[in-house]
Structure formats: C-alpha cells, structure tokens
Amino acid sequence: MHLTFALNYLARTHILAGELAIATRLVEEDHLMADAVGHPPIPDTAMMLAAWRGGEQEASELIEAVSREAAARAAPALGRRADYASAVLYNGLGRSAAAYDAARRAFERESMGYGSHVVPELTEAAARTGDLKLLETVQEWLSERARVTPTEWVLGIEARARALLSEGESAERCYRESIERLGRTRVRAQLARAHLLYGQWLRRQRRRGEAREQLRTAHEMLDAMGIAAFAEQASRELLATGETARKRTVETAVELTAQEAQVAGLARDGLSNPQIAARLFISARTVQYHLGKVFTKLDITSRSQLAQALPRDPDVVPAR
C-alpha cells in the first residue's frame, strides 16, 4: 500500500507540472499493481487526471464514482477532492457557474492541505460569475498564507487573484507578476493558465497583437501538456483575435491521446472491455467510446488488427 500511495502522490506532482503523460503511466502502474494484489486502485488521482485533460464524459464518471465512495465511507476529504476535480473540469469547459459551485464547496469545507489547489479554480470562477466579494475574501486568504509561506507558487497565484480584482495598469502588473513568479516554479499547468487569463484580458482591452502572443504561448503549452479543454479555450480566443491556432506537428502519422493509447494497448494485449474498465477505473461504455476513436484514427475495424496497427513503444504514440 505504501508504494500505491507513493505512485499516486508522484502522479499528482506530475499533473501540477503539466506532465500528464507521465502521470498517466504512474496511474496505470498503480492500477496494474492493485489488480495484481487484489486491492481496488486509488480512484481520486485518475479522477484529477481526467479533469485536467478536460474529457467531460470520462471525468464526470470518475467524479461521480469518487463522490459515491466519499459518501459511503463518510470521507469528507475525498468528497472535497471530487469537488476540486469538478471545478477544474468545468473551468476548462467554460461552465463557470458549475465551477464556482464546486470550488466554493471545496474551499468552504477545507480544513488544511488542499486550499492551494482549490483557490485558483475558485478565483477564476468567482471572477467570471461576478462574485467580487468572494474573490476579495479568497485573495485575502491567499495573502495571509503568502506572508507565512512566501513561495513563488503561492505568490504567483495570489498575484493572479489580484489581477482578476484589478483594472488597467494595476491588473496588467499583477498578470505579469503572476507569470514571472509561476515561471520560476514547476507548476507549469498554472503558468499556462496564467498566460491564458492574461491573453483573455488583453483581448478585452482590444490589444490584439499582445493578446495573440500570450494566447499563442498558452495554447502551445496547454496543447503539448494534453490539457485539452483549456487549450481549446486558448484556440477560440486566438480565433477571436484573427489568428488560427496551429496544431502541433508530430513525426508519426497517428496521434492518440494518453487515454486512447492506454485502452488500445490493453485491448491489443487481449483484455476485454470490462477488464480494461476495471483496470483504468472507467466504465465499459467509455472503453468502447475510446476504442471507436482508436479504430477511426488507425483506420482499422477490429481488435485483432491492433497488434499490427499499434506500435509497442509508448513514446511512438504521443500523449496529448
């Protein structure tokens, strides 16, 4: 069990760093280990990973499963993590009211330990829904903690909260400070989102040229990380400035997402849909959905063709 917990905590570190492909492999390793010893896998890391990827169906199923488990076990901390994942998912999908509700629940019930993850979601959702009073409260909460533990991560997120509360030159200084501070950390996922928020603000100021620069950076980072929903936000914002986001070029003819590569690999190795679902902590319906996309991308029609069509080297099929 100690190794299982270590794998999950390490995976969460990689999620924060925007290294979703590495996190995916660690989660898969945990599931393989759980299958071997007969213990259920730890579900909440896979849930967070799905939320950051932005796949609504998969993430929603995992959030629902974790929420049910939290209720059955009377485990409020697990429930807060489900709320956090919901906030990430809905902020990415642009559903600010749902993100606000989930992030506020997680923040108000937080005792210790997870607030630094929740507040970036809550500040963004509060700003978009117009709850400036709550945004001020959260910014003060961040400022108090920044005085006690003045890390670049906390100071970067606190500067971003101040930017969302500010206007004009003050807002711009705060956005730039946030990017500068977060750029000195390994929290690359939040750095990419800081570029996105700054680019969105610049576009609203009708500074299209400067907005394009920030949005282009955000899109390239988020797309490379596999943070698809936020990358799509950046793409739409770029389009609004008159520029189309360039898709990443890859040397291979086929690009599967990390989840598609996992499902395809297990199917190639002979596992049934229910077995794959149990191992990856998703539903058999989601497995079938991913296989359908894999078949289309690889231009095949059956599982028996996966051995020929799917490379064995996981790096040949890059994760997005």
Rg computed from alpha carbons, rounded to a whole number of angstroms: 20 Å
How does the major sheet shape up? none
Separate helix tally: 17
Order of helices and strands: HHHHHHHHHHHHHHHHH
Helix content: over 70%
Number of strands: 0
Question: Terminal Cα separation, in Å?
Answer: 30 Å
Q: Specify the overall morphology.
A: globular
Task: Write down the overall mean pLDDT.
Answer: 87
Uncertain regions: pLDDT < 50 for 5+ in a row? 249-253, 313-320
Which structural class should the secondary elements be placed in?
mainly alpha
Measured by DSSP, the beta-strand proportion falls in: under 5%
Give me a quick take on this structure:
The protein is mainly α and 320 residues long. The chain is 75% helix and 0% strand.
Describe the structure.
By secondary structure, the chain is an all-alpha fold. The protein is 75% helix and 0% strand. The protein has 17 helices and no strands. The chain has helices at residues 2-16, 20-37, 43-53, 56-73, 76-93, 96-108, 115-129, 132-148, 152-165, 168-182, 188-204, 208-225, 228-240, 258-268, 273-280, 284-298, 306-309. α2 packs antiparallel against α3 and α12 packs antiparallel against α13. The protein is globular. The protein starts with a helix and ends in an 11-residue tail after the last helix.
Strand-helix topology:
Layout: H1 2-16, H2 20-37, H3 43-53, H4 56-73, H5 76-93, H6 96-108, H7 115-129, H8 132-148, H9 152-165, H10 168-182, H11 188-204, H12 208-225, H13 228-240, H14 258-268, H15 273-280, H16 284-298, H17 306-309
